[in-house]
Amino acid sequence: MKLAAVATIRTDFPEAHFWLVRRGSAERCGEPVRVFNPEHIGIRIERSDLLLPDYLFYALAHIHQSGMWKQLATGTLSLVNIRVSDVRDIELSPR
After folding, report:
1. What pLDDT digit, counting tens, does each position of 10-64 carry?
2. Class of residue 44 by CB neighbours under 10 A (exposed 0-12, middle 13-18, buried 19+)
3. CATH code of domain 3-88
4. Domain layout of the chain by residue ranges
5. How high is the pLDDT of residue 71?
6. Helix or strand (DSSP H, E) at 33
7. Is the separation of the CB atoms in 14 and 31 below 8 Å?
C-alpha cells in the first residue's frame, strides 16, 4: 500500500500533521518538520486507525537520515528538490 492511500499529501497545506522540506540543500531536502511553510510538502494522515502521524514523522526522519531523499532529489548541487509524487509513492509495508 502506498502512503497516498492513507494520507493527503500536498504543498501549501497548513492543516497537515507535519511537513517535509521540499527544496533546499541535499542535507535538508526531505527532512520532516513541525513548522508550516507553504513551500513544504504537507502530510495529513486520514486513516489514523492504520498509521499514527507521530510514527510516520519518525519513520520519515529515519528515511531522511538514511539518505533516501538524496537519491531522489533533482536539481543542482547547491539547490535540490523532491516532488510531491515521490512522497505519495512511498510504499508502506504491513509488518
Report:
1. 999 999 999 999 999 989 999 999 999 999 999 999 999 999 999 999 999 999 9
2. middle
3. 3.90.220.20
4. 3-88
5. 87
6. strand 32-33
7. no
